[in-house]
Amino acid sequence: MKRDLFTWAKSMAASVLFCSTAFSQEEHPLVTTPQLKISYVDGQCDVELGKQAYQFAFLKIENLTSNPLHVGFNIVTQFAEGCSGCNGSDESLYYVSLSPNQVYAASCASDDKTKVYLRNPNFSGAWNFQELRIENLVVE
């Protein structure tokens, strides 16, 4: 009985250690105003069955007020080899309406521009991510 309890305790400790390491994500601030905070965390999503997961940045947009906000901005992804969204085109433009004190956080399930592609490790010619920026911010 003691051996089973000891084995179970070791397994639980290993699980907690592994899970906290695997899921700990550093938040990278992009914009902070009295009304709004935009940041991102790095993450991976399985895109192709049997392949390495793709790397993404998941935006987190926070309404810091007790009023509804309408927010628009360009998402700029800078790579060593070039830039995506640097021209301020409609392709990189994102709009969102936030309820009072709402926090929107992208995930692998997100189907919008807040899940920002960074790299496909399965492709040897993939560009090398350098930084993510928010440009042309409008808050109403």
Main attributes of the structure:
single chain; 140 residues; alpha+beta; Immunoglobulin-like; five-stranded antiparallel beta sheet; four-stranded antiparallel beta sheet; 9 strands; 16% helix
Describe this structure in words.
The protein is of the alpha+beta class. The chain has a single domain (25-139), classed as Immunoglobulin-like (Sandwich). Helix content is 16%, strand content 46%. It contains 1 helix and 9 strands; from the N terminus they run H-E-E-E-E-E-E-E-E-E. It has one helix at 2-23; strands spanning 27-32, 36-45, 54-63, 69-79, 82-84, 93-98, 103-105, 115-119, 129-139. Strands 1, 2, 3, 7 and 8 form a 5-stranded antiparallel beta sheet that branches. Strands 4, 5, 6 and 9 form a 4-stranded antiparallel beta sheet that branches. It is globular, with a radius of gyration of 19 Å. The termini are far apart. Residues 5-24 have low confidence and may be disordered.
Give a short summary of the structure.
Strand 2 and strand 3 form a beta hairpin.
Total individual domains: 1
Strand content: over 45%
Order of helices and strands: HEEEEEEEEE
Radius of gyration: 19 Å
Please provide the count of β strands. Answer: 9
Unreliable spans: 5-24
> What is the distance, rounded to the nearest whole angstrom, between the alpha carbons of the first and last residues?
64 Å
CATH class: Mainly Beta
The name CATH uses for the topology is Immunoglobulin-like
CATH architecture: Sandwich
Share of residues in helices? 10-25%
Shape: globular
The biggest beta sheet reads: 5 strands, antiparallel
Total count of helical runs of at least 4 residues: 1
Q: Average pLDDT across residues? A: 85
Helix/strand class:
alpha+beta
